[in-house]
Amino acid sequence: MNLSVLGSTGSIGRQTLELAECYEDINITGLAAFGNTELIYKQIHEFEPEICCIYDENKALELKAKLKSEGSKVKVVSGMEGLIECAVWDHTDTVLVSVVGMIGIRPTIEAIKAGKNIAQANKEPIVCAGHIIMPLAKQYGISFMPVDSEHSAIYQCLQGESANAIDKIWLTASGGPFRGWHREELRNIRPEDALKHPSWNMGAKITIDSSTLVNKGLEVIEAHYLFNVKADDIIVAVQPGSVVHSMVQFEDGAIKAQLGSPDMKVPIAYALHKGHRLAYTGEKKLGFKELCDIHFEEPDLETFKGLKLGIEACRREGSLTTVYNAANEECVAAFLAGRIGYLDIADGIEQAMAAHSFIADPSLEDIFEVEQEARGFIRKLYDLDK
């Protein structure tokens, strides 16, 4: 395959390139990052892509000059136009979308229209524009594979089950570093405390989302659009250790589960190879001890009300999913910068959702307007523009 990696310097992007070193059938044609020119410079020399996008225009100009002085033929582009060009590049047939945030919406849509197969690790396009993207993927007949471990697990459980209706999706969660804590115990949590995830190695924003369980709220919405299942038929189950990645219950009561070590390279490789399983490249496979330790708990929706708000947004759909996502992004950035407290994240989301003028069937333009309104609400609420 000829692969463009959007978000090549992030956690998923780096692991994807590690897989490309292991599998000879993966040829890197495009790389894209926000502004980490030091790392993407090394990636360019290692993988020799045809095109590279640095979203930050000034940093893109610096990289372009540096590569030109070396005689490199890599095309360097920038901004949203550059990101889209990287996604629709002629010689690319598969696009891994692993950028962070709503920045991934337009490249995902344009890649689908260009007939590219999609490996989707970026939640926000589905959370905010799933009602647009999923019908579009069907219309263009491309392969659209989820990379999230939970959604990959659901997808795997559904193989061979096209004639059987889903009764429930059991979406698993590790519970994060504060599982079992009560709300007041979380009041003085610092960013460094929340960045210690018990199972997964992820970027800062996703790790904070996992600690608040907002990440699971986003995944409920994502599962709703990916698999056309109602919010009330998606059950979140806490499974410490992250061995059971998710389960599907069918109408006859049978449940299929997908289990494995908490290693993102497994769902990445599965998505890139469209369901074909290649030899495991990790250091540890699932063992008997991990199987013996499996147990489930119900999530505490009062302490971790970010999840409850996500389920509410999923039930109502429309523009509320964008408010949920955008308000969270703004709050998490403020928390990481030390501007607001840990509990202010979910409180801010709740107030933004309550203040929003609901749009039942938002267009792409509506989605981006709602995003800015939600971000503006949070900045005003917490006086972040000072």
Short description:
The chain is an alpha/beta fold and 386 residues long.
What is the fold's blueprint, element by element?
Blueprint: E1 2-6, H1 11-22, E2 27-33, H2 37-47, E3 51-54, H3 57-69, E4 75-78, H4 79-87, E5 94-97, H5 105-113, E6 117-120, H6 123-140, E7 144-146, H7 149-157, E8 166-173, H8 191-194, H9 204-212, H10 214-227, E9 234-238, E10 244-250, E11 255-259, H11 265-272, H12 288-292, H13 305-316, H14 320-336, H15 343-355, H16 364-381
Parallel strand pairs: 1-2, 1-5, 2-3, 3-4, 5-6, 6-7, 8-9
Antiparallel strand pairs: 8-10, 10-11
Helix pairs in contact: 4-5, 5-6, 6-10, 6-14, 10-13, 13-15, 14-15, 14-16, 15-16
How big is the Rg?
A: 20 Å
Unreliable parts: none
N-to-C SSE series? EHEHEHEHEHEHEHEHHHEEEHHHHHH
Query: Mean pLDDT, as a whole number?
Result: 95
- Beta content comes to 5-15%
Shape: globular
> Helical content, roughly?
40-55%
Biggest sheet strand order reads 4-3-2-1-5-6-7
Structural class: alpha/beta
- Largest sheet properties: 7 strands, parallel
Textual characterization of the structure:
By secondary structure, this protein is α/β, with parallel strands linked by helices. It is built from 16 helices and eleven strands. The protein has helices at residues 11-22, 37-47, 57-69, 79-87, 105-113, 123-140, 149-157, 191-194, 204-212, 214-227, 265-272, 288-292, 305-316, 320-336, 343-355, 364-381; strands at 2-6, 27-33, 51-54, 75-78, 94-97, 117-120, 144-146, 166-173, 234-238, 244-250, 255-259. A seven-stranded parallel β-sheet has the order 4-3-2-1-5-6-7, with helices on both faces. Strand 10 and strand 11 form a beta hairpin. Helix 6 (123-140) packs antiparallel against helix 14 (320-336), helix 14 crosses helix 16 and helix 15 (343-355) crosses helix 16 (364-381). The longest helix has 18 residues, at 123-140. It is globular and about 60 Å long. The termini are far apart. The model has no long low-confidence stretch (mean pLDDT 95).
